[in-house]
Design a protein that fits this description.
The complex is a heterodimer of chains A (about 240) and B (about 240).
Chain A (H helix, E strand, L loop, with lengths): L1 E11 L7 E11 L3 E6 L5 H8 L7 E6 L2 E2 L6 H7 L2 E4 L11 H13 L3 H14 L15 H13 L5 E5 L7 H16 L3 E6 L11 E6 L2 E7 H4 L5 H7 L2
Parallel strand pairs in A: 3-8, 3-9, 6-7, 7-8
Antiparallel strand pairs in A: 1-2, 1-4, 4-5, 9-10
Helix pairs in contact in A: 3-4, 3-5, 4-5
Chain B lengths: L1 H13 L5 H15 L4 H25 L6 H39 L2 H7 L4 H38 L6 H11 L2 H27 L8 H29 L1
Helix pairs in contact in B: 1-6, 2-6, 3-4, 3-6, 4-6, 4-7, 4-8, 4-9, 6-8, 8-9
Classes of the chains: A alpha/beta (about 240), B mainly alpha (about 240).
């Protein structure tokens, strides 16, 4: 089944409504796929993920999550499909007025109306899974960016999404931390979660992701599978894979 | 801003019981910040207000032997006008400005998008608790302000040797008050609180902000909230005169 599907999608910038940030995107993500999308800075990677998460309205075209057309809004019928998609922002984007554990508990408490104890238990399990068991009561400002990003990952997984979108999740990480992320995402993929990773360097994903695409001048160019990648002539791809 | 206010009140009524385990503690936190946290300053100002009004009017009324109008002056000046207005201005300066800074910073740091990605309506999470907290908090503070000023007014009159017993003073107050005063004071205080919350939340949240734009947004919010308070007050004066 198709997890995500964009047909002729065009998106305008929220801040500058006369600026097109995505144009003519035709893209579909099968369930349990593992996509890596490369692109230089400012080509629309974050906008693509925000659109895929249902945060930015589509100006033209159609966007479906598991076959359901997506609209912006918070009515119960509208958010159910969107909650199947988790989004991890660059840097985690934790809520600064909440502790790490409260950040992870928030979606559970809000959507599942669980009691505080149960929420905290589930949040603690998630935080331990991402190696933050010792940091649960810290405020986001008291932990470094690396840990904030992991806490953001735990929060994005809290509602058990079927699709996880990750924006530049390896940027600024040391090799050991980057390896942890790659292995963790491999595990998520093996568990059946559909993954879409946006990055400005495709090299770490070359041996991990199974489908590839690049964004050039706000257009998405699907490149195909890992095997097809080696034969592809897309010039931007050579730049993003250069050692 | 009108649309923002209407959306906010729509969310209050449509999501009254949704996610109460998350929203209720936030309402109590705002109630503390816009109520109990401001109470010492309000009581101090009530003391000063009683002194100022009695200090000025006693010498004037004594000259004409019209001390029996002391209670009427206090009701007209403190209860109907200065009490609610001063309380609103203090809440605006103390809590309203903090609201713009908090929400503007959250917006600039991408926390609003983080909430949206979790399927949480930012108006429900950020604005509704502030509107309820400020409206109820300002209502309670207005009562304390009026009681404090009326009591301190008598104390200052006593210090100035005005021949007036407490029973006579409170009888004068009771004679000057009408039933419509209680209705208008309650409605006015609740409207002031809601208006301050809507204006300050709008400037912090409704438009994309960069961090350097937050101080300017705060200044704009204060100016517009003062205008909103003045217009609301004028509206209630008209209603009072028509009654």
């Amino acid at each position: 089944m198709r997890a995500l599907e964009m047909v002729g999608v065009e998106v305008l910038s929220l801040r500058y409504p006369d600026r097109v940030v995505l144009r003519d995107v035709n893209w579909s993500v099968e369930e349990k796929d593992y996509w890596a999308i490369g692109g230089l800075l400012g080509t629309g990677k974050s906008d693509l993920l925000a659109t895929a998460a249902g945060l930015i309205p589509v100006t033209h075209g159609k966007y479906r999550i598991f076959g359901e057309e997506i609209a912006i809004g918070y009515e119960q019928g509208l958010i159910e499909a969107r909650l199947k998609v988790g989004l991890l922002f660059d840097g985690g984007r934790l809520l600064n007025h909440l502790s790490v554990i409260d950040n992870v508990s928030l979606p559970l408490q809000y959507h599942e109306n669980l009691g505080t104890v149960e929420c905290r238990e589930r949040a603690t399990t998630l935080l331990e899974k991402v190696g933050l068991g010792d940091y649960t009561s810290r405020m986001p400002g008291m932990i470094n960016r690396r840990l904030q990003q992991r806490a953001g990952l735990a929060r994005a997984l809290a509602l058990q999404p079927k699709v996880l979108l990750l924006d530049n999740s390896l940027s600024g990480l040391d090799p050991r931390e980057a390896l942890w992320w790659l292995n963790f995402l491999d595990q998520l993929s093996a568990d059946g979660i559909t993954l879409v990773v946006a990055a400005d360097d495709l090299r770490p994903w070359r041996g991990r992701a199974r489908q590839f695409a690049v964004l050039r001048e706000h257009r998405l160019i699907p490149l195909g599978s890992r095997e097809q990648l080696a034969e592809h002539t897309e010039p931007l791809l050579q730049e993003l894979l250069r050692d | 801003m009108g649309a923002f206010g209407l959306i906010t009140f729509g969310v209050i009524f449509t999501k009254l019981t949704l996610a109460h385990r998350v929203i209720r503690p936030l309402v109590f936190r705002q109630l503390y910040r816009a109520g109990l946290g401001v109470l010492p300053m309000i009581l101090f100002l009530a003391l000063a207000l009683g002194l100022i009004i009695i200090g000025q009017t006693v010498s004037l009324l004594s000259r004409f032997g019209a001390n029996r109008y002391l209670g009427m002056v206090m009701v007209t000046v403190v209860v109907r006008e200065l009490g609610p207005m001063m309380t609103a201005l203090i809440v605006l300066l103390r809590t309203g400005t903090a609201t713009v800074v908090e929400l503007g910073t959250a917006r600039a740091l991408g926390e609003v998008e983080a909430l949206e990605a979790l399927g949480i309506d930012p108006i429900h999470y950020f604005v509704v608790p502030r509107v309820l907290g400020m409206a109820i908090g300002l209502f309670a503070l207005t009562i304390y302000m009026m009681l404090g000023a009326l009591v301190s007014g008598y104390i200052w009159a006593f210090v100035q040797d005005v021949p007036l017993t407490p029973a006579e003073y409170f009888q004068q107050l009771a004679d000057s008050l009408r039933w419509i005063d209680f209705v208008i004071i309650a409605l006015k205080a609740l409207t002031f609180g809601a208006a301050i919350a809507v204006v300050t939340c709008y400037h912090g949240l409704a438009q994309p902000l960069r961090l350097e734009e937050v101080p300017r947004a705060t200044a704009r919010a204060v100016a517009q909230a003062v205008i909103a308070i003045a217009l609301t007050d004028a509206f209630f004066i008209i209603i009072y005169l028509m009654s």
